Every structure is written in structure tokens, then in C-alpha cells.
């Protein structure tokens, strides 16, 4: 038995030494499972400075940047529609740029998050898109220690890491001068509450999802919702809303939620704000025969789930973070940082805070227009649009170029693009 | 070497039975090496870089420590799936202590005391109340996690950075050293306890045949309490390490530890029902295999669905080979 | 004859005692604390839905748990059967009954796979079910690109969330289960295996066949439960990361209540009575506005209480027997001494 153990240990040692000699960082010849589909060779197509016009003729065929860039994306729920939409957009971009993505599994705990960051670093990722963050500063520190860029929109983190080269900042729903103490979830909840109260609701219910499970994003959305309704009430809305009695919790699928939902539908609510998918309300409302009498608002995507509801008028509004606008600018910032153009990724040395608009989609026509546009494979920020942000394609590119591109895309501009 | 007992006729044990049992016993080690080789190749060597080894030490250490402690409890036939809940509970109280005093030492003491109290509770139920223990621990786990949420109130997580005094943090390398030292230290402690003291023998007897254990003079009640105290030590160490590594505690802390420990034990070749085939090695081997598997799958950049299918298949395959050594006529329960 | 009627009445009374007491308790408590409406109107509809849904999951769990097989893959089987069955029914544009049969069949098929993997590999069921849960979740995730199933608005299919359809459904299911477990060889064999595995196998009962049938039946129950869920919510999304393994938490209390009243009624009916009691508890707590965490703690304490009681109730019986024997022995001694 002892001999076998020693033999085993020797084997392990041999195998380990075999691989320890392998390269430990990503190399240009990455042959992972995300080969650029349109690209020729992986070897760089050097920007040819032919005297043929101002911009160098780099083909948008998956060969730029020269060195392959792997990016990790962390999420809370891999089945979340917003995340799935983002995945489609990012996968679309891999056809044009020499990039690939590693997506996390559903991250719940702090240990899972740090573990994912470490695995991504080992896999050779150069950056992390933090679609979700549990440990706050520890996640950023972990990325910095691993030499990975960190992209997110958490204003609190920006303050702590503004001088660190690996902290990239991200998007912001606030322009310069706005109150920066609130994050995207809060603002989403705020818009929901405000919109419902302003649209003539009489008695509002709020469904707060994961608050009782202690999940921060739901806590933020709830606070935003409360403040949004209060703001509308201050402006004259007659909506009735009690922050204790008119709030239900629970996770869909549990018996407790079913009980709370039925009890709520018994009352006289005519507007419901839902912090997670509003889709779990459609059928129960139909079952009690109140279709058309109750309007729903949610933070969600322009997807199949809400298509019918918008046509029938059941949805009052969907606070939509258009993936290519709100999250797509991460690719611009990251690629500029990775290709040595960090100044374009920064606003005079301060981490990026690209102002983006949240689209409050409140009518069926807008919804359908956006839905069909995406369904046809078109995006409001295409790979070609992005090239103006990279000096390799546009020598005039600057932080302002990026800012202008994304901040201009509000709902009206987007709808105008479609027509 | 196997002795053959002859009684006039040459009776030799059939070679195939020897091989099956040996293969079964070696299966966890074979599984570990195969996982290292296969994922080492599939990840083009990224799996075994120094950086990733350090990273894997972070993941392996908590699972490994808890699993080593769990061997004692599972070995005696007590199926304890509430270890994750215990860790979360202890970590929350330790975290609160750390934040209010700014001292990691106080936090560790609180965590240790809480773990011991929980262990005593579980031990008393195991020793004195007749109840299907696995159901008891499943329900207990749910009670722990609900209680943690009640304690946290409206906060999703508590952060050490909010402590009254600054609490030192440890960088990647320091953490790896702490992890390795703690894991191997606890493993050696568990190894000595299990293989070189009577406690290990008592565990195996209680797991194998409780009546025979009582008849042969083992004080099962006292021994049960001791086992849970050993497991509590593992829980306390794991909770402390999670606290200093992530510097935060929330409702989801150690949420999947119950399943992870079970998987590590099984993959490490230990029968979940305990008994004479219990051994201490799953603490290291099982935890290492599971960690390497998870790390390899993550590095390969597979989708969630693909990762889960791989994980499920590898899990069943390793367990199948490990169990070759103890197949019986009846279906296991 | 009158003895039989007395026995039946006694059985009915004792079987219904726990849910009746629970109902009255919450009715009084809710009215007293200013939360009226418990157990009537739409709340009653919810209670019936929850009883049926949780009852079916509890029945599926019961079939295996009492044989010592803890099945972690219950949730993933339910989700996968619902996603597959729902999407097929959507394509076929069939009626509600056909939808139910399709989902039931798919659930049974998944159960068959689980059962076969268990008996062929011969691994502990906890281990097998954990591995299978990962795989089923993954299949549900990959199928339809993580979109799950959406049948919102298809009221011809989604008929099982409201009375009287769900009541009729559960009565039929219970009738079939009672028949299978009390009047068929499968049922006898199952009971024999539950009581004494080794003896039953030695006597010649085919344990593997029985185990597989249990899994198939459990899968069918889960398929039906999925239909009920879809009828309520109209959609289901896939689960990942073994989050489906928490589905069985709602099955424990009904099973242990069934253990407590098992002397007085047939096992499937007892489980359903347990589910009804649990539904009363959940609705009552929801009415009173108790937080989810507090509800979970109270629920689990009640489960533990029933668990401890049902595992140790034989002690009371033993003590009573001992007391009776002691009385009889004393009486006999007195008689001898008097002679």
C-alpha cells in the first residue's frame, strides 16, 4: 500500500511538472471555443499605413485586436432574460472583434464570486464585466491582484479605486452633477414607482422579490420604488401606497408567494410594481378575471415574455436596460484599456462613467419596434459603430467620442433609428 | 498480501474479486489523477499554473477542512447535511463580533464557541433522540439559513470594512499560505485522531454495526458528542477562513457547502453511510478532485449547461468506480 | 357491523383532527389579530391549489423516502418534465387533458431513467439523485436556450390551478395511488421492502423492479404537479446550480404528518391531509404578514416536532402495553394470593 502511495505521488509530481512548464498566460494563438467565424488567420493584420485615406484599413473580421482578448462576465442568474440578451449581443461582437467570453454560472455567494475571478484569471481573461457583485471591494481587489481590468457601474467602488489602473469604471445613469449615491437598481425601482404613480394608478402594490433573502439588488430596487412613488405623490399623484401593507415578498414558486399573491389579488390593487419578472403575475391575474384591470410595471427586457402583455395593455411599463447601450460600452472601455489606450477609457484620469439612458418603454408600439429590430439581428450600437471609439480605426477617438456615442441613445433616438 | 486459507483443497480467491476491490479502493486517487491530466490537457496547462494552484487552494481548503471533520460524523452513520448552515451561522455571528470589536481574535473565539454549541445540540439529538438523522439535519440547515436572514435583518451582507477598527486583510499569496497550512494541519490532526487513536475505530464500529458497538463496550453517546466536536472544529476553521478571505458574510455564505461536502466524500471514496470503510483521505482527495474539476470546467469557458452535465457525469462515474469494492446483494439505501 | 362503523368513524375523526385543529386555530388567530379572510374565498382557492401542488410533490417524495431513498432530483425532474411537456403541448395545440397526459408521461419517463440508473449502477440513491439532478437541470437549461416554457394566456390548457378541476384531479390521483398501494402486488411488495429489506429480497421479491416502479410513479406525480404549477403561473424557467434541490423542503411536513396519522388512514390520503395542513399553515402565516424567514423557522420547528413524534411514538405504545401487562400481572398475582 505504501509503495502504491509513493508511486501515486511520483505520478502526480510528474504530471504536475509536465504542465507547470506550460505557458501560464494567454497567448495570441488562442484556440478556444470562440474562434472568430469570419476571420482568416489569427496572426495580426497589421494596420497598413497605406496612403489611402485618413483611417487605416483594418478589417472588422475578428482579427483586431492583434492579441486575443478574453473577457469574463459575472452574473447572478444565468436564466435571467437581461443576461441572455447581453450574451447574444456579446456573441454577435465576437464575429467582428478578436474577443471571446467566459460566462460564470449563477453566482450566489461571496466564495463563488472570488473563485470565478480566480478561474477567469487562470483562463487568461484580461478583464471582468461585473454584471453582478457580491463582495464589493474584495472582488475588485481580487481582479487587481490577478492583473485583470474590472468594469462595473458601482459608484461606491469608483471612489475607493479611482487611482488604480485596473479599475475601469463603467456606465452611469447619472450625469455630472446628479446625486451619485444611488445605483442602477435603485434608479430602476425609482423609475418603476414614479411611472406607475404618474400613470394614474389608484392603489399600488409592490412585489419585492429577494428582499427577505437579503439580496442587495432587490433591497435597492425597493428603496428606489418607495422614493419614486413618493416623488410622484409629491407632484400631485393620488396613488395610494403604504410601504408596509402594500408590499409583498417571497420568491415565485414557493407556497408562501402563492398565498401572498392570491391574498393581494383579492384586494383592490390596480397597479403592481414587480422587482423581478412580472410574468409570474399574468396568469394569476387572468385566473381571477382581472386582466385589463391591473397594470404591471417591471425592470425587464424587451423579450418574448412581455410581448403579448404589451399588446393587450397588461404591461404599463418595462424599465429596460438596452444591452448594447448600457452594457455594450464595457467592450469599448475594456478594449481600449487592453490595447494601451487607457486614456480613452478614462475621463481625464478618472474612471469612466459613461452616461447612458434607461429606456422606460411604456407603450406597445415602442416595445414592438424595439423587439422586431432585435429579432432581425440588428443592434442600436453595431460593431461598426463601435470602431469610431478605437484609435486603430479612428485616430481622432477620445473619451468624449465614447461618451457621445452612448449618451445620445435615449429611447426617442433609438426609435428614430428604426424608422 | 492476501492469505489463502486451504482446507485440503486449493481454495484461492478469484483474481477478479481482488482486482475489483483494489480498483475500488484506488478509484479516488485514479479519479484525481485522471481529472488533473484530462483538464490539464483541455485547459492547455492553465489548470496547473502557480496562480491557479493558489486560487484552487482557496476553494479546496474550506471544502477540505469541513470534509475532514465530516468524516468522523458520517463515518459513525450520522448523515449531517447542515454543515453549510452551521458555517453560515457561525460566520455571521463571528462577522458581527469582528465588526463591533475590530478584532479577528474575538471573531475566531465567537465562531469557535458558536460552532461548539451547534455541535453539542446536534450531538445531543443524535445521541439521545431517535430520529432519522438526515432529515433532521436537512431541516436544521433550513432553520440555520432562515435564522441567519433574521439576524442580518435588512442587510444582504455585512462587510468587515465597516469594523470599528481596521481589520487586516490578506493578499492572495498570504491567503494561499494560510489555506495550505490550515488544511494540512487539520488533515494531520484528523489523520492521527482517526488512524492512531481509538476514536477512529469507534467511529467505524458505530457506523458499521451500532449494536455490536454498544455490546463491545463503546460508550456511543459520549463518542457521538466527541465526533460532533471534531466536526465543529472543522466548521469553525472553515467559517473563519471564509470570513477573512471574502471579508463579508451574507445569507448565501457556505450555502452549497452541504452538497459540496457530500460530493467530496463520495468522490473521495467514502461510503456515505459510514462504517468500516470510512477513511480520512476523502478530506483531501475528494476536495481536491472536486475543486480541480470545477476549476477546469470554469477555465474551459463552457456554458452552464455543459458544465453541469460534465459535473454530473464525472461525479457518477467516480462514485461508480469507488463503489466497486463494496457491492452487495441488496440495493443501497 | 357497528364495530366496523365505529372503527371507520374513529379513523376519519383522527385523520382529520390535525387539519381541522389547524384551520380553526388560524381562523381564530387571523380574526383576532385583524387579518380576516383566512380560509374563505380566494384564500380557500389558494389553499386548495397549494394542497394539490405540494401534495403531489409530497406523494412523489413519499414513494421513495419511506423506502429509505432520499431523492434530490425531485425538483429537477419536475422542472424538466414541465418544460418539455409544456413546449410539446404548445406545439401540438392540444387540450388540457392531453397536456396533462403528455407531461405525466414525460415525468414518468424521467423517473424511469432515474430508477434504472439507480438499480443498474447500484449506488446510494442520494448520490445518484444528486448527479442526475445536475444533468436534468442542465438539459432543462439547454433545451429551448434557457427560455423554459411559456403558456401564458392559453386557458384551454391551464385548467388545473382552480377548483373544481384540481379537486377532481387530486381525487383521481389519490384513488389510483390507494388502489396501487393497497390492492396490488406492487403495493404489497413495496410495504414488505419498507419493513424489512433483506427478508423481503430473500423471500423472492424483485427489489429492483419495485424500486424502478416507485421512481416511475414518483416521476408521474411530478409531471402532474408541473401541470398544476403551469396552470397557476403560465410559465416556468429552468434552474441551475442545484437550486432545484430545495423543492423537497415542502414535502417533509406532509410526510411526517402522514406518519403521525398513518394508523388511521391509507398512506396517500394521509400524505394529502398533511399537505392540506401545511397549506393552512402557509396561508395563515401569509395572512398575518409574517416574514418569509420567520415562516420558514416556524415551519421547520413544526416539521421537527412531527419528525420526533413519529419516530418515537412507539414509545408511548410500548409504555401503554407495559402498563397493561403490569396491571394484568398484578391482577393475576392477587388472584393467586387470594386462593
- Sheet with most strands: strand arrangement of chain A: 2-1-3-4-5-12-11
Assembly type of the chains comes to: heterotrimer
Order of SSEs of chain C: HHHHHEHHHHEHHH
* Termini separation of chain C: 40 Å
CATH class assignment of chain C: Mainly Alpha
Helix content, binned percent of chain A = 40-55%
Main β-sheet description of chain A: 7 strands, mixed
Widest β-sheet, arrangement of strands of chain C: 1-2
Q: What are the low-pLDDT stretches of chain C, counting only 5+ consecutive residues below 50? A: none
Low-confidence blocks of residues of chain A: 3-8, 10-55
Largest interface: A-B, 56 and 57 residues
Characterize the main sheet of chain C.
2 strands, antiparallel
Number of strands of chain C: 2
Query: Rounded to an integer, what's the Rg of chain A over CA atoms?
Result: 24 Å
The CATH class of the largest domain in chain A: Alpha Beta
CATH names the topology of the largest domain in chain A as Rossmann fold
N-C termini distance of chain A: 77 Å
Amino acid at each position: 500500500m505504501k509503495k502504491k502511495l509513493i508511486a501515486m505521488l511520483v505520478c502526480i509530481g510528474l504530471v504536475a511538472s509536465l504542465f507547470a512548464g506550460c505557458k501560464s498566460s494567454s497567448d495570441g494563438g488562442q484556440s478556444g471555443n470562440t474562434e472568430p467565424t469570419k476571420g482568416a488567420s489569427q496572426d495580426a493584420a497589421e494596420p497598413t499605413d497605406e496612403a489611402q485615406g485618413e483611417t487605416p484599413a483594418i478589417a472588422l473580421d475578428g482579427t483586431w485586436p492583434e492579441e486575443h482578448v478574453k473577457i469574463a462576465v459575472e452574473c447572478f442568474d444565468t436564466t435571467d432574460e437581461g443576461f441572455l440578451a447581453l450574451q447574444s449581443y456579446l456573441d454577435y461582437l465576437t464575429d467582428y472583434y478578436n474577443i471571446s467570453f467566459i460566462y460564470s454560472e449563477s453566482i450566489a455567494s461571496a466564495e463563488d464570486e472570488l473563485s470565478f475571478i480566480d478561474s477567469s484569471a487562470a483562463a487568461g481573461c484580461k478583464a471582468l464585466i461585473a454584471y453582478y457583485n457580491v463582495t464589493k471591494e474584495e472582488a475588485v481587489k481580487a481582479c487587481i491582484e490577478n492583473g485583470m481590468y474590472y468594469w462595473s457601474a458601482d459608484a461606491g467602488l469608483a471612489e475607493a479605486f479611482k487611482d488604480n489602473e485596473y479599475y475601469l469604471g463603467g456606465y452611469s445613469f447619472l450625469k455630472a452633477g446628479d446625486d451619485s449615491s444611488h445605483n442602477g437598481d435603485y434608479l430602476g425601482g425609482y423609475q418603476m414607482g414614479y411611472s406607475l404613480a404618474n400613470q394614474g394608478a389608484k392603489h399600488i402594490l409592490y412585489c419585492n422579490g429577494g428582499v427577505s433573502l437579503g439580496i442587495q439588488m432587490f433591497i435597492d430596487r425597493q428603496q428606489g420604488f418607495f422614493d419614486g412613488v413618493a416623488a410622484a405623490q409629491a407632484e400631485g399623484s393620488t396613488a395610494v401606497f403604504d410601504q408596509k401593507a402594500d408590499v409583498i415578498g417571497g420568491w415565485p414558486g414557493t407556497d408562501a408567494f402563492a398565498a401572498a399573491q392570491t391574498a393581494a389579488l383579492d384586494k383592490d390593487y390596480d397597479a403592481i410594481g414587480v422587482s423581478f419578472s412580472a410574468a409570474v403575475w399574468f396568469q394569476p391575474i387572468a385566473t381571477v378575471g382581472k386582466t385589463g384591470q391591473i397594470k404591471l410595471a417591471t425592470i425587464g427586457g424587451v423579450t418574448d415574455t412581455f410581448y403579448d402583455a404589451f399588446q393587450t395593455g397588461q404591461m404599463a411599463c418595462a424599465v429596460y436596460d438596452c444591452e448594447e447601450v448600457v452594457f455594450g460600452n464595457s467592450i469599448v472601455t475594456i478594449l481600449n484599456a487592453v490595447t494601451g489606450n487607457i486614456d480613452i477609457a478614462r475621463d481625464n484620469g478618472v474612471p469612466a462613467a459613461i452616461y447612458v439612458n434607461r429606456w422606460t418603454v411604456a407603450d406597445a408600439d415602442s416595445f414592438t419596434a424595439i423587439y422586431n429590430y432585435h429579432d432581425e439581428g440588428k443592434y442600436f450600437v453595431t460593431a461598426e459603430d463601435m470602431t469610431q471609439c478605437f484609435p486603430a480605426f479612428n485616430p481622432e477617438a477620445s473619451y468624449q467620442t465614447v461618451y457621445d456615442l452612448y449618451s445620445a441613445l435615449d429611447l426617442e433616438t433609438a426609435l428614430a433609428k428604426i424608422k | 498480501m492476501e492469505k489463502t486459507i486451504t482446507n485440503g483443497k486449493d481454495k484461492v480467491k478469484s483474481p477478479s474479486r481482488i482486482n475489483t476491490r483494489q480498483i475500488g479502493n484506488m478509484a479516488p486517487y485514479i479519479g484525481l489523477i485522471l481529472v488533473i491530466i484530462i483538464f490539464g490537457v483541455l485547459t492547455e496547462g492553465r489548470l496547473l499554473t502557480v496562480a491557479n494552484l493558489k486560487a484552487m487552494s482557496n476553494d479546496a481548503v474550506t471544502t477540505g477542512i469541513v470534509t475532514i471533520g465530516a468524516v468522523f460524523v458520517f463515518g459513525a452513520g450520522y448523515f449531517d447535511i447542515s454543515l453549510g448552515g452551521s458555517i453560515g451561522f457561525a460566520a455571521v455571528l463571528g462577522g458581527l463580533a469582528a465588526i463591533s470589536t475590530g478584532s479577528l481574535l474575538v471573531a475566531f473565539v465567537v465562531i469557535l464557541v458558536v460552532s461548539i454549541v451547534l455541535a453539542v445540540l446536534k450531538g445531543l439529538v443524535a445521541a439521545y433522540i431517535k430520529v432519522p438523522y438526515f432529515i433532521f439535519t436537512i431541516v436544521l440547515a433550513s432553520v440555520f439559513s432562515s435564522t441567519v436572514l433574521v439576524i442580518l435583518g435588512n442587510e444582504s451582507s455585512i462587510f468587515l470594512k465597516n469594523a470599528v477598527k481596521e481589520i487586516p486583510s490578506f493578499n492572495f499569496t498570504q491567503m494561499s499560505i494560510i489555506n495550505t497550512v490550515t488544511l494540512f494541519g487539520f488533515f494531520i490532526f484528523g489523520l492521527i485522531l482517526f488512524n492512531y487513536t481509538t476514536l477512529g475505530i469507534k467511529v467505524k464500529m458505530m457506523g458499521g454495526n451500532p449494536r455490536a458497538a454498544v455490546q463491545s463496550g463503546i460508550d456511543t453517546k459520549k463518542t457521538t458528542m466527541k465526533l460532533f466536536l471534531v466536526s465543529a472544529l472543522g466548521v469553525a476553521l472553515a467559517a473563519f477562513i471564509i470570513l477573512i478571505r471574502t471579508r463579508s458574510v451574507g445569507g448565501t455564505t457556505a450555502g452549497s457547502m452541504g452538497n459540496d461536502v457530500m460530493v467530496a466524500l463520495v468522490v473521495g471514496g467514502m461510503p456515505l453511510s459510514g462504517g468500516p470503510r470510512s477513511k480520512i483521505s476523502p478530506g483531501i482527495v475528494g476536495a481536491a478532485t472536486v475543486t480541480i474539476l470545477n476549476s477546469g470546467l470554469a477555465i474551459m469557458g463552457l456554458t452552464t449547461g455543459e458544465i453541469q452535465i460534465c459535473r454530473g457525469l464525472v461525479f457518477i462515474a467516480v462514485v461508480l468506480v469507488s463503489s466497486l469494492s463494496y457491492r452487495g446483494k441488496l440495493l443501497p439505501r | 357491523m357497528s364495530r366496523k362503523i365505529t372503527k371507520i368513524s374513529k379513523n376519519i375523526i383522527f385523520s382529520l383532527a390535525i387539519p381541522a385543529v389547524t384551520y380553526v386555530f388560524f381562523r381564530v388567530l387571523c380574526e383576532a389579530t385583524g387579518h380576516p379572510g383566512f380560509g374563505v374565498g380566494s384564500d380557500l382557492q389558494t389553499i386548495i391549489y397549494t394542497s394539490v401542488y405540494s401534495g403531489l410533490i409530497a406523494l412523489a417524495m413519499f414513494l421513495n423516502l419511506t423506502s429509505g431513498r432520499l431523492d434530490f432530483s425531485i425538483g429537477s425532474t419536475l422542472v424538466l418534465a414541465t418544460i418539455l411537456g409544456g413546449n410539446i403541448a404548445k406545439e401540438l395545440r392540444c387540450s388540457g387533458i392531453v397536456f396533462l397526459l403528455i407531461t405525466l408521461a414525460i415525468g414518468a419517463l424521467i423517473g424511469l431513467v432515474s430508477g434504472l440508473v439507480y438499480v443498474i449502477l447500484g449506488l446510494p440513491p442520494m448520490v445518484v439523485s444528486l448527479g442526475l439532478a445536475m444533468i436534468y437541470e442542465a438539459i432543462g437549461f439547454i433545451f429551448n436556450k434557457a427560455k423554459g416554457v411559456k403558456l401564458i394566456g392559453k386557458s384551454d390548457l391551464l385548467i388545473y390551478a382552480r377548483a373544481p378541476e384540481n379537486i377532481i384531479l387530486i381525487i383521481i390521483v389519490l384513488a389510483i395511488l390507494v388502489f396501487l398501494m393497497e390492492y396490488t402486488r406492487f403495493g404489497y411488495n413495496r410495504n414488505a421492502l419498507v419493513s424489512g429489506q433483506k427478508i423481503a429480497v430473500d423471500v423472492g421479491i424483485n427489489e429492483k423492479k419495485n424500486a424502478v416502479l416507485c421512481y416511475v410513479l414518483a416521476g408521474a406525480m411530478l409531471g402532474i404537479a408541473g401541470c398544476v404549477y403551469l396552470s397557476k403561473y403560465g410559465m416556468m424557467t429552468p434552474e441551475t446550480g442545484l437550486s432545484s434541490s430545495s423543492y423537497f423542503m415542502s414535502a417533509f411536513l406532509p410526510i411526517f404528518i402522514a406518519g403521525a396519522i398513518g394508523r388511521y388512514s391509507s398512506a396517500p390520503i394521509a400524505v394529502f391531509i398533511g399537505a392540506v395542513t401545511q397549506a393552512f399553515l402557509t396561508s395563515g402565516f401569509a395572512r398575518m404578514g409574517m416574514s418569509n424567514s420567520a415562516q420558514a423557522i416556524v415551519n421547520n420547528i413544526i416539521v421537527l416536532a412531527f419528525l420526533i413524534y413519529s419516530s418515537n411514538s412507539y414509545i408511548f405504545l410500548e409504555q401503554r402495553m407495559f402498563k397493561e401487562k403490569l396491571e394484568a400481572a398484578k391482577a393475576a398475582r392477587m388472584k393467586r394470593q387470594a386462593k
